[in-house]
Design goal:
Blueprint (H helix, E strand, L loop, with lengths): L1 E4 L7 H5 L3 E4 L8 H17 L3 H16 L6 H16 L7
Parallel strand pairs: 1-2
Amino acid sequence: MLSMNADPQSFPDEVVKRCLMIYTNTSLPTHKSSLADELHRSVEDIRSRLTIDLYRRYLSDIMDKLDDEPLHKDVLKLSSETLFDQIEEFADVPPPD
């Protein structure tokens, strides 16, 4: 999930197709332009590093699990468990139950 300010065209199509985009209207104080510049640089850095790697990994893991059990009883639970496992693998702290 991404939270962004205004410009829906600022992310690659591959990212937009696989994310819930939340558009917000906020403004920065004009008297603190250095903070605005720093924030803009930070956002640009984050935007440039966004990839669809998590989606690809998720899809691969789900397909493997569906190969084992094609008619899974609870697909939402399967999806949640898959994401949980991926977050747990790479997070610094364990995710909440």
